[in-house]
Amino acid sequence: MSEPGRTATPSPEACRRLLRGALGEWIPGWQPLAENMLGADARIDLLGRDAAGRAVIALLDLEPDGDMALVAWGLAQCAWVDARLPDWAQLAPDAGFASAAGARALLLAPRFRSAALAAAAVHPDLQLLELRLSDDGRSEPRLWLESVDGAVPAGSTRRSNGGGGFRSGLSAEDLDLTPDEIAELQGR
After folding, report:
1. What percent of the chain has pLDDT over 90?
2. Which residue in 13, 17, 18, 177 could disulfide with 143, CB within 3.0 to 4.6 Å?
């Protein structure tokens, strides 16, 4: 998706609606199966599976400093889903879960601070995506996702921005941008 000009704070419902389709860019074979379902003492925003039958959890936290709690919830929800996958595979074989593949989580927030990045880095089943919502006057807002580790969507030819630069491969230092200009470009 193209980068939006302006950002807004979307509602969780609007994000879930937009994510159902947008996650197909990041997860090969994405098949959404459940939305806003009760998980480990909290709601799982989206639950689906990838092409290999692995369960994929998408969790949103739209609070500016909710990233550390989101990492903890991601770990808890992965464990909760892992424990139930054999039963789900038996109850709903058409869902396509490969119960031995386990679960992974996509954690979506407006930003991730360095402590959250460090905490998530020790668990290979967590992927962090920063999200923005386009508010450019279209009838349907558009969601923009960017991996904080520089990964690009599956099958994409876009260059990574390295987590802190721009899609062009240039950094803020290359462009001689001030911190205020960087924050404005990133919608923060």
Report:
1. 52
2. 18
CB 47 within 8 A of CB 19: no
Residue that wins the pLDDT comparison between 122 and 179: 122
Q: Is 90 exposed, middle or buried (0-12, 13-18, 19+ CB in 10 A)?
A: exposed
Q: 140-165: per-residue pLDDT in tens?
A: 667 788 888 766 566 544 433 334 45
Walk me through the domains of the chain, giving residue ranges and CATH numbers.
Answer: 12-157 (3.40.1350.10), 160-188 (no CATH)
Whose structure tokens read 């054999």?
A: 86
Q: What kind and span of H or E run contains 18?
A: helix 12-22
Could you tell me the two tokens for 139? Answer: 């009838």
pTM attached to this predicted model: 0.73
